[in-house]
Amino acid sequence: MSTATLTETLVTSKPPRAARMPGQKPFAPLRVAAFVVLLLLAIGWLLPFLWAVATAFKTETDAASGDPSWIGASGPTTEAFAAILSQGNVYTWAFNSLWTSVAVTLITLAISALAAYALSRMDFTGRRWLFAVIIASIVVPPQVLIIPLFYEMLAFNLIDTYWGLILPQVVAPAMVFILKRFFDAIPIELEDAARVDGAGRLRIFWSIVLPLSRPILASVAIFVFIGAWNNFLWPFLVINDTTLMTLPVGLQTVISAYGVQYAQVMAQAVLAALPLIIVFIVFQKQIVKGVATSGFGGQ
Known about the structure:
Number of domains: 2
CATH superfamily of the largest domain: MetI-like
Shape: globular
Largest sheet: none
Order of helices and strands: HHHHHHHHHHHHHHH
CATH topology of the largest domain: MetI-like fold
Strand content: under 5%
CATH class of the largest domain: Mainly Alpha
Mean pLDDT: 79
Number of helices: 15
Structural class: mainly alpha
């Protein structure tokens, strides 16, 4: 082959395609479209929260004005946060929320894990009916049980007490269902081997099942903690003593006393949500892993 022919062949030939890495997915327009849609939905969800944060850093005059500005004419200020934090009971309310949320989380975990393990591994009379009742109770709105629970707490003289605030929140049928689904997926051979070595039912549950269930237990704990922290209706009904109020209820009474002040309302929302944001940032891996293994991810 002559030099001219070889040069012409090299110029006109197409370069080889880049080799695809193992496991690399080909370009798909549908994936790009789905990503764009999810990005727009995420932005639409974040905008109200960002607007609440921006309003919390405005003066009351700028917050009440009709000017749709992110900063406000007077510039950023922390007056709303200072007004909220200047209330003497705010730190007591925060401690009450933390204490009750932790207590509700621990008791709910203990009750739900034991009930789920019994439904998953033990065969007893009425097991299927009991599990059906638990599933059916998931669809019952919590507001339907408010009046019976209130009269029950009143009969036991638990109004204006921590236990009256905690006990009605520890029953979580949805968490029992999630944990049972996870326990069902644990190989029974592990328990059989431990039983051959002489381990009892509680020892197997404590030493084998619970260590294998750390992801789902962490996920359930975070969900229960968030629900207990955000709970407003029940603490509002059962607690009248200002020293026992939780943070959402206590801050609401402060705002009601001084009328609607939009900057302080948004500052209250930011302060109440801040601990939950921190919890999610710290434990987001456990949340994602727990949801993926709980049975709702197509398992």
